[in-house]
């Protein structure tokens, strides 16, 4: 029997926030996987630049999934952790082909922006609950994804 969680957030709001964070976790993990895939498979004149850039991005995303999952756990919910769960929860499209480098950039811009929208969608419940730790996490994630989308977009000219 586990102890009751009493952190000043109602059970209902903890669950609502946790479900939103689970969607964010699924988006982040899916973006991690796609970025890692593109790192492995990119070709063309921009190979070295994109290979290194994608590596920096998937490394950052790998750290982010841990932060998001740990926040879900701190709120008392189980963190999703399977491909099947992520596939149900994510708003991103997987890529099974090997697109050209420019198409990789276009997809990653769209996906980075989609992750921002997912994070932003959780804010009403977070603000209602005065959940500053989650608000801080979301703000940081949005800032990183918006900046990354800008950098990727800039590569497209």
TrEMBL record:
Protein family per UniProt: Belongs to the Dps family.
Q: What is the lineage of its organism?
A: Bacteria, Pseudomonadati, Pseudomonadota, Gammaproteobacteria, Candidatus Competibacteraceae
Write down what this protein is called.
Ferritin/DPS domain-containing protein
SUPFAM superfamilies, sorted: Ferritin-like (SSF47240)
Q: Determine the domain of life of the protein's source.
A: Bacteria
- Domain Ferritin/DPS, chain residue ranges per copy: 20-156
Q: Name one GO molecular function term.
A: oxidoreductase activity, acting on metal ions
Which InterPro entries does the entry mention?
A: DPS_DNA-bd, DPS_DNA-bd_CS, Ferritin-like, Ferritin-like_SF, Ferritin_DPS_dom
Record CDD domains = DPS
């Amino acid at each position: 029997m586990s102890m009751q969680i009493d952190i000043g957030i109602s059970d209902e709001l903890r669950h609502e926030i946790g479900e939103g964070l689970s969607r964010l976790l699924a988006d982040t993990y899916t973006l991690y996987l796609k970025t890692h895939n593109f790192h492995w498979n990119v070709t063309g004149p921009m190979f070295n630049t994109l290979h290194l850039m994608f590596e920096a991005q998937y490394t950052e995303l790998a750290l982010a999934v841990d932060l998001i999952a740990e926040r879900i756990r701190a709120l008392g919910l189980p963190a999703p952790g399977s491909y099947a769960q992520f596939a149900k929860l994510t708003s991103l499209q997987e890529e099974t082909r090997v697109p050209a480098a420019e198409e990789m950039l276009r997809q990653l811009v769209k996906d980075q922006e989609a992750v921002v929208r997912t994070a932003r969608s959780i804010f009403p419940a977070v603000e209602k609950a005065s959940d500053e730790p989650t608000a801080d996490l979301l703000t940081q994630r949005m800032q990183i994804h918006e900046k990354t989308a800008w950098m990727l977009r800039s590569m497209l000219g």
